[in-house]
Each structure stands twice: as structure tokens, then as C-alpha cells.
Design a protein that fits this description.
Blueprint lengths: L2 H10 L2 H9 L1 H10 L5 H13 L3 E6 L7 H20 L6 E5 L10 H18 L3 E3 L7 H14 L5 E4 L5 H7 L6 E5 L14 H17 L3 E5 L3 H13 L8 E5 L4 H9 L4 E7 L3 H11 L1 H12 L3
Parallel strand pairs: 1-2, 1-8, 2-3, 4-5, 5-6, 6-7, 7-8
Helix pairs in contact: 1-12, 2-3, 3-13, 4-5, 5-6, 6-7, 8-9, 9-10, 12-13
The structure holds flavin-adenine dinucleotide.
Length: 308
């Protein structure tokens, strides 16, 4: 493993570093580059700024792997409050929410996660927006797709996420490419064994293109989540090939990553959705983003070393 990556991942487990990063003024800017804030109102403010720039948004209340019913309930309440505030601010036409089933109790009981996700979907419907279920590690894929299927009986607009690194994903794309089906395609963010996932980056990219073709060929609404300029170029070309007009698919990128590219695509008439994470549990998310890319790591270390 890249030594900087290893260092950042080691720092991820360190509470002293968490306090330093969270309170030092310069470091706080580092946090703010990737995370909208800790409170609902900060998340709504960040949403409002992006929407004013012609972007759309999906919001993630940070918190995963809940093994506690009360914590799952805190997550549900946070989403309900967020949806309410987005609606009051007139933003729910441009902003939806992304939910991790593990944060609403999947590890405890799939039924609990389904019930909790249903409450979020019902609130989203009332506010005139949608929900996408984030995808987590491969041990949860079947369960997440089962819950998705149940939710879609009442709310057919619930979005799925499929990860191109999984060998099964082309089949899942075929399964979920029907009319009205919202599917986010990403490379995949978890460390997965070779038995289930492609390991070489070029194999993942090839799988991404195969899956993108399948989704574009289908009748659903594909959401291409990637910062990879090569893939963005290929999708642009394939969308034309499949006679897809802008607005019948969208691009998605993370908050703070390639913001100029987000604007460029939006100004070219594409729908671009920015994934905004917020909430008190930002530390693990931030560390994963920093570990992903040496340039981010150097930026982080410079900010940490700064006295200001
Ligand atoms: C909106 C969204 C939602 C996601 N949801 C999920 C999910 O539910 N489940 C899941 O497993 N994963 C999710 N992911 C994460 C995803 O799976 C990848 O781990 C992550 O997006 C990195 O892959 P990439 O396609 O951006 O390309 P990478 O392989 O990371 O990068 C490819 C190229 O993109 C460019 N690039 C990348 N980062 C930067 C940067 N910071 N600055 C400038 N250029 C950069 C560089 O040219 C780089 O070579 C999501 C990602 C996004 C954008």
C-alpha cells in the first residue's frame, strides 16, 4: 500500500488526530472542502449554493454500521428533519437524499432497515423528492437489493447503486435497467476479495463501460457516479450513440471533488448531481477521501502542519 495512504488510514483510527483536524482552523478548511458541516442547516446552506450554480444534489447523513436501534432512530430523525428543511427552503425539487441501510439498522435486522427506509421514503414523497440507497460491501448486496425491491413496490423512484468492481454487476444492471428505474453506477469503494470483485483498475473500468452501455440501452434513468475524466468522456460518447438526450441520465460527483468539472458539465446542459455528506460522523468519510488520492493526502498533511 502507498505509505501516505497507510499513514492516513492509520490516522483514521486516532482520536487525538480527529480532535486536531476538527478544531484547528486551517484543518477545518480541509474538512469543509469535503464535508458540508455537522448540522442540518449547514447541509441546506451548501445545497442552496450548489443549486444556485445549476447543480442538483443528493445528501448523505454520515453514520454507518449502526448496531443500535436508538442510533438508527437518530439517523431516521435526521433525514426527516433534513427533508423538512429542504422542502421549506424550496430545494426539494433539486435535492434528494442518499441512505445507507447499515445506518438505519440493516446489521440488526433487515426488517428494521426496511421499516426505517420506508419512513424516509414516505417523507421524501411528501416533500416531492426521491431517495437513493447507497451500496455497501458485497456481503450486504443481496439484502440491499431485496429492500430496494420492497421499497419500489410503493415508491418506484427509489434509486439503486451498483458497483462496477463486482463481477455480478452486469447481471444486476440488466435486471434493473427497466422503465422508471433509477440506477447509480459507481466503481465501488470497499476492499473486496478477488472471488467477487475485479482487482485491476483497468478491469473495473472495462466493467464500468459494459454496465454503462447496458443501462444506457435500457429504459431506466442511469446516474453515472465517477470523477474519472476518461469515463465521463466515454459516457458522453455512448449517450449520443444510444440517442440519450441530456436529462435522460445524469452525472454524479462528490462534494469538493472536481468542482470545476461539475460546473463545466452543468453549463454544457448535462444534469449533474453533487453528493453532499454532512453530520457529526464526518471523520471516517474524510479519511477515506484523503486516502483515495495522493494529492488530497499532501493537501491534508500541509494543512495539518500549518500553525494557522
Ligand atoms: C456520487 C457518488 C456516489 C457514490 N456512492 C457510492 C456507493 O453507494 N457505494 C460505493 O461503494 N461507492 C460509492 N461511491 C464511490 C465510488 O465507488 C468510488 O470509490 C469513487 O467515486 C472513486 O472512483 P472514481 O470513479 O471517481 O475514479 P477513481 O478511480 O478514484 O479516479 C479516476 C480518475 O478521476 C480523477 N479524480 C479522482 N479524484 C479526483 C480528485 N480528487 N481531483 C481531481 N481528479 C480526481 C483522476 O483523474 C483519477 O485518475 C460514490 C461516488 C460518487 C461520486
Amino acid at each position: 500500500m502507498n505509505p501516505l495512504r497507510a499513514l492516513i488510514l492509520a490516522a483514521a483510527g486516532n482520536n487525538g488526530i480527529r480532535r486536531l483536524v476538527g478544531t484547528a482552523p486551517v484543518s477545518r478548511d480541509v474538512v469543509r472542502r469535503f464535508v458540508a458541516g455537522e448540522s442540518t442547516s449547514e447541509a441546506v446552506t451548501a445545497t442552496s449554493a450548489l443549486v444556485a450554480d445549476g447543480l442538483t444534489v443528493t445528501l448523505d447523513y454520515l453514520g454507518e454500521d449502526t448496531t443500535d436501534r436508538e442510533l438508527a432512530e437518530v439517523t431516521v430523525q435526521s433525514y426527516l428533519e433534513l427533508l423538512d428543511q429542504l422542502h421549506s427552503a424550496g430545494l426539494s425539487g433539486s435535492a434528494e437524499v442518499s441512505v445507507k441501510l447499515s445506518a438505519v439498522g440493516q446489521a440488526l435486522d433487515e426488517r428494521l432497515a426496511l421499516d426505517n427506509a420506508s419512513r424516509i421514503c414516505a417523507a421524501a414523497e411528501q416533500c416531492g423528492t426521491t431517495v437513493t440507497l447507497d451500496m455497501e460491501d458485497h456481503t450486504t448486496t443481496d439484502s440491499t437489493l431485496r429492500v430496494l425491491g420492497e421499497l419500489r413496490r410503493s415508491w418506484p423512484w427509489v434509486g439503486a447503486v451498483l458497483q462496477a468492481y463486482l463481477r455480478r454487476t452486469l447481471d444486476d444492471c440488466r435486471e434493473l435497467a427497466g422503465a422508471g428505474s433509477r440506477v447509480r453506477l459507481c466503481k465501488g469503494a470497499y476492499k473486496e476479495p478477488e472471488s467477487v470483485a475485479y482487482q485491476a483498475p483497468h478491469e473495473v473500468d472495462l466493467s464500468y463501460v459494459r454496465c454503462a452501455n447496458t443501462l444506457l440501452q435500457g429504459d431506466g434513468y442511469p446516474m453515472f457516479a465517477t470523477h474519472d475524466p476518461r469515463l465521463v468522456g466515454i459516457i458522453d460518447e455512448r449517450a449520443r450513440w444510444h440517442d440519450r438526450k441530456p436529462g435522460t441520465y445524469e452525472y454524479q460527483m462528490l462534494y469538493g471533488i472536481r468542482p470545476e468539472e461539475q460546473l463545466r458539465l452543468a453549463q454544457a446542459g448535462e444534469t449533474v448531481r453533487v453528493y453532499i455528506p454532512y453530520g457529526q460522523e464526518w471523520y471516517g468519510y474524510l479519511m477515506r477521501r484523503l486516502a483515495e488520492r495522493p494529492a488530497n493526502t499532501a493537501f491534508f498533511l500541509r494543512a495539518l502542519a500549518s500553525k494557522r
